[in-house]
Amino acid sequence: MLRLVSTLAGFAGFLLMTSLASSSVAVSEDVQAVYQQRCGACHEGSAKELALGTLVVHQGAIITRKRKLELRAFLNQHGRSRPDEIDQLYTLLQNHLAEGGPPAR
């Protein structure tokens, strides 16, 4: 009986991890689609290239290099994105800045 419970618990854990992994991939694919629709039409290259080429972190805030605007405020007035898309784009660009390094090709 104990062995059966242990096996079931292991299987439940496996299902949970598989579910989390697949939802992470779906979220990633969703935000890439948002990026392509809202940004990619005008900005060449990847989201990482855009982040590393046009954004900086200053005193804990992400700002645009040229206009010196906070990223979320900039996105609110640029590209006609919905609030949920802005949240997704902000997180995507923030993650690319945190990764640093050369832009992925």
List keywords for this structure.
105 residues, 4 helices, two-stranded antiparallel sheet, mainly alpha
Quick synopsis:
By secondary structure, the protein is mostly helical. It is 68% helix and 8% strand. Helix 2 packs across helix 4 (83-99) and helix 3 (71-77) packs across helix 4 (83-99).
Structural overview:
It contains four helices and two strands. It has helices at residues 2-40, 47-54, 71-77, 83-99, and strands at 55-58, 61-64. Strands 1-2 form a two-stranded antiparallel sheet. Helix 2 (47-54) packs across helix 4 (83-99) and helix 3 crosses helix 4 (83-99).
Overall mean pLDDT stands at 79
The N- and C-terminal alpha carbons lie at a distance of: 53 Å
Radius of gyration computed on alpha carbons: 19 Å
The helix-strand sequence is HHEEHH
User: What's the structural domain tally?
Assistant: 1
Individual helix count:
4
Strand order of the largest sheet: 1-2
Strand content: 5-15%
Major sheet size, sense and barrel closure: 2 strands, antiparallel
Shape: globular
| Sheet/helix structural class | mainly alpha
Parts with pLDDT < 50 across at least 5 consecutive residues: 8-26
Helix content: 55-70%
Structure summary, number of beta strands: 2
